[in-house]
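Memo to structure team: turn this sequence into structure tokens by end of day. - J.P.
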Amino acid sequence: MVTLEQALDWLRMPPDFGSGDIVEGLLQAIPDYIDITTGMSVEQQKDEPLVDTVTKFLLMLWYDAQQPDAAQLQRTIDNLLKTLTVKARGYENRSIDGKGAEKEKPLTYLERAEARARARKQKERSLTTIIELNP
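Reply from structure team:
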């Protein structure tokens, strides 16, 4: 996690700058923002180095939204958040039931559709084999 000193350094502010409270408030808001936008819990964020990078870019944008590179910065942030979303889904593939045992999570709509397509192709191959064997 990014410290206040690191954030002030990233924003190129001296440690005794008067906006430290504002930056600290932004720092406190970022973990929940990442959790809401990506699904990556605050606990998972602690072990993910990419979170620090996103945090620094979010600080830059949130602290000075009128900067000339704001649109490019927003695109970068969006792409990093998409990456974190994919990683968060990887963390969620398994969950722990009440007894501490791992269990499979339910499939998403896309995963179910892919499974149906694979089953359909397998069935077509089986039918083709049966037709070839019984002319």
